[in-house]
Specification:
By secondary structure, this protein is of the alpha/beta class. It is built from 18 helices and 14 strands. The relative contact order is 0.15.
Amino acid sequence: MRIVALTPETRKDLLSNLLKRSPNQYGQYEETVKDIIEQVKQCGDDVLLELAHRFDHNEITKETLKVTEAEIEEAVQEVGPELYAVMEKSAANIRAFHELQKRNSFITTSEDGSVLGQRITPLEKVGVYVPGGKAAYPSSTLMTVIPAKVAGVSRIVMTSPAGPDGKVNAGTLAAARIAGVDEIYKTGGAQAIAALAFGTQQIPRVDKIVGPGNIFVALAKKAVFGYVSIDSIAGPSEILVLADEKANPRYAAADLLSQAEHDELASAILITTSSELARRVSDEVDGFLQKLERREIIEKSLENYGYILVADDMDQAIEAANEIASEHLELLVQNPYEVMPRIKNAGAIFMGEYSSEPLGDYFAGPNHVLPTNGTARFFSPLSVDDYIKKSSLISYSRSALEAVHQDIELFAEREGLTAHANSIHVRFE
């Protein structure tokens, strides 16, 4: 991996390079995505089948578009009891963590007769997109569906592309059963997002769409936002490891590579205060590359978006980490609980050498659907809050309103909204 000194110039160059990975930089595909969305709006299921034939090379028909219970049972048998049991343990951890996020409605009353409050209700229908092919991750099924179930969503609709054999990834279907998905359809890409957003003959229109996907999925979610809600526009995966001179270089190298293997656009960055550690981590990376299966992808990722940055001190390192605002941030430092409060921008923070990033991906419980491309500055991980909506409650008695009606009328009149003022005034004529 390239080793460079952390300076204002190198930090600026790095941030500029990382931003090239954002879905907002791929405008050349927007017209294609827009065209697919319009086709789905006009023709529904017929377009889904046509594009499945063209892109996924299968022979899905209207009769086989929806996944059957028999197919799910076959998938469970294919996955096998060992992996299925592990997924059940993971699901239990995810469910327990997200139960802690649940909010309650509230009401406050005053002696003057006014009642104020907030009512929380779950969304009625949520669409979950799960990638297929080489990017099929059953763990994402658990992470997107279980918080929705905890929130109380009554209908969860999943879409995932089928392979040439006409089947959805077995792990995805097994995870869908564990998580409690209500219905699953064999469609992927921008067309699946359009189907969830606008509905087709078989696929219902939903209130919100969540889940990761490729650039076409990301741009489609961006395009339908406003017709439905979305979780976020996800970019490629990324990890930032913050390490001092005491960090284990082998652990740091392994953790960097755990994200670089996702795809060629993934980013893996080490910021350290030790030049010696930087060199040793680079050597460990070279050693691991000789035996890892996805070596070609990893090498491309590191060539384009891999960095080892050597900082003058921990203050400079933390400042850079906050500016990068990484999806995953590992603290391989002597006192991670002292450093953690100074981290302002990160999707998920992993503290200590036995808290490597895959722990969060698969098992610990916190959600692994996280903000990318610096959006951790203002976005949060997927949570129960993404599947609820809030309504304000307001009730005033006559005496409570009488005490303030002139204030309200004055405010409205000064804004030039006399009908607003009149709505209050008529109650005290």
